[in-house]
Amino acid sequence: MKPSENKILAAAHDLFREYGYNGTSMKRVVEASALTTGSVYHFYPGGKVELAAAVIVEAGGAYQKLFEQVLDGCPTVLVGLETLFQQGGVMLASTDYIDPCPIGGIAREVANVEPKLREACDLAFNGWIDSGTRRFIAAGLEATVARDMAMLFITTIEGGFLLARTARDPEPLLAAGRAFCAAFRSQLRR
Amino acid sequence: MKPSENKILAAAHDLFREYGYNGTSMKRVVEASALTTGSVYHFYPGGKVELAAAVIVEAGGAYQKLFEQVLDGCPTVLVGLETLFQQGGVMLASTDYIDPCPIGGIAREVANVEPKLREACDLAFNGWIDSGTRRFIAAGLEATVARDMAMLFITTIEGGFLLARTARDPEPLLAAGRAFCAAFRSQLRR
DNA sequence: ATGTGGTTAGAACGATCATTCTAGTCGTCA
DNA sequence: TGACGACTAGAATGATCGTTCTAACCACAT
After folding, report:
1. Which residues of chain B neighbour A122 with C-beta distances below 8 Å?
2. What is the number of alpha carbons within 13 Å of residue B166 lying toward its C-beta?
3. Does A135 reside within a domain?
4. Residue B91, Cβ density class (10 Å: 0-12 exposed, 13-18 middle, ≥19 buried)
5. What CATH number has the domain bearing residue B157?
6. CA A15 to CA A25: how far, in whole Å?
7. Residue B130, domain member (yes or no)
């Protein structure tokens, strides 16, 4: 990936997180990337939609990688999950409660308006679901339960970020995380 | 509330659900309410922000009322929760996966940009959290667990709506709902 | 030196944004 | 009847939107 393309992608990623899809103008992407309109449309001839799709793909992969890495670095899956909620809370507080992930926000804004972006978000979510399902099965959960718990994990993270940002307090995320981890522990015992 | 004011509020409510906050223009609110710019700004002199705040207050109360009513109409809290997830799935599928609730979307879009709206959303969420906590305590959960579970319930609903809309399939909401209800059942047994 | 293709530069376009403003209509009560 | 306040009407404003366009730049091949 060319350096300019990378700068555009990074700028768009940050702006979408902070201001959402419709709240981010191409002019601001141009300014934040320290380039010009011509360059942005050179690398993303499809304009804003193509740029957002690229951000979704990149962020989707990055978060899945983060998830896997944290679990790999922890003695058990349960400890890994607790760590993820903890780290999420710390990150929120240390970034002035900016949305840590652009995908959910974009999905919510344009799911009914931009099929291309809805599909890109769906792909990212499915990657997370599959990854979580595999990990939870490996941890000892029965297959169908593991998939349900993977879904619950993602809704807990996405919803927890939302509540914590709205409250400007990590507590809702941590509380939901505690309840989720208790549920996970309870399923392990079966 | 005057009829015109009600028409404006209803139109804005629907548009925010479908297109989000930044994706909804005042022009479209004017058209959808079958009134004129003058009327809209007569009832909401604070413009778009004041209008959105009114939508949030109204929707927040309506959803809390719905939550209470469904639980009141069910033999146990657990059955009530299962019913809510079921109904949510049906509603999504029957409305072409339009966001059932404008609050989470607005919160996500403008939490870092419009303090007034962030606070309005926070108030609505806190009402739900308190309501859920009370109900869960009444069902037999210990106080701190009940609050954590109330948070988890809201994240599950919000996140479940998000995943289901993105997938255009109620299944993620239902799966997360199953996992949540299993967790609730497990907490009841203690 | 002379292209050549990838990249940068930024002016310009028409559309749409939220909001303001003046003028007019309507029901109600004096 | 007259007057007043609530409401409606919609043109107008200046800003900003996403995108397009032409010209220039630059490293490198011939």
Report:
1. 166-167
2. 27
3. yes
4. middle
5. 1.10.357.10
6. 9
7. yes
The answer to whether A41 CB is within 7 Å of strand D is yes
Q: Is B150 left (phi over 0), alpha (psi -120 to 50) or beta?
A: alpha
Convert the pLDDT of each residue in B29-76 to its tens digit.
Answer: 999 999 999 999 999 999 999 999 999 999 999 999 999 999 999 999
A21 CA to C9 C1' distance (Å): 26
Instruction: Give the number of domains in chain A.
Output: 1
Structural domain boundaries enclosing A64: 53-188
User: What is the DSSP code string of chain A?
Assistant: --HHHHHHHHHHHHHHHHH-STT--HHHHHHHTTS-HHHHHHH-TTHHHHHHHHHHHHHHHHHHHHHHHHHHTSSSHHHHHHHHHHHHHHHHHHTTT--S-HHHHHHHHHTTT-HHHHHHHHHHHHHHHHHHHHHHHHTT--HHHHHHHHHHHHHHHHHHHHHHHHHTSSHHHHHHHHHHHHHHHHHHT-
Q: How far is A6 from chain B (nearest CA, A)?
A: 25
Residue at A40 is within a domain? no
The answer to whether residue B27 is domain-embedded is: no
- Give CA–CA dist A178/B60, Å, rounded: 25
**Is the pLDDT at B190 greater than 90, yes or no?**
no
In degrees, rounded to 5, the angle at the alpha carbon of residue A178 between the alpha carbons of residues B108 and B155 is 30
- Please write the tens of the pLDDT for every residue from A136-179: 999 999 999 999 999 999 999 999 999 999 999 999 999 999 99
Count each helix (H run) and each strand (E run) in chain B, helices first: 9, 0
| Tens-digit pLDDT profile for residues B107-116 | 999 999 999 9
Map residue B57 onto helix, strand or coil: helix
Which DSSP letter does residue B114 get? -
- State pLDDT tens for residues B142-182: 999 999 999 999 999 999 999 999 999 999 999 999 999 99
- Integer distance in angstroms from CA A26 to C1' C14? 17
The rounded distance, in Å, linking the Cα atoms of A178 and A182 is: 6
Instruction: Give the mutation candidate from B92, B106, B108 for the A interface (greatest A CB count, under 10 A).
Output: B108
Best of A96, A151, A158, A168 to disrupt the B interface (most B CBs within 10 Å) is: A151
